[in-house]
Write a structure and sequence with these properties.
The protein is about 30% helix and about 15% strand. The relative contact order is 0.22. One of its GO terms (biological process) is methylation.
Amino acid sequence: MAFTHPLHPSWLDGISRHVTILDYGCGYGRVMEKLEQHAFDNLTGADISPGMIKRARHLHPR
């Protein structure tokens, strides 16, 4: 399944790249990956779905 809701880089303007971000219900980590690509460095994703966690670990081993 692919999600198409975009993350617009302009939404990130003015936000320190060192803030702590928790994505609760992160699924397979799509938004975390996008934030990392925009130099955010203090990211945590949490999800309760074993399938999503497995997919996230496969796609984003870090």
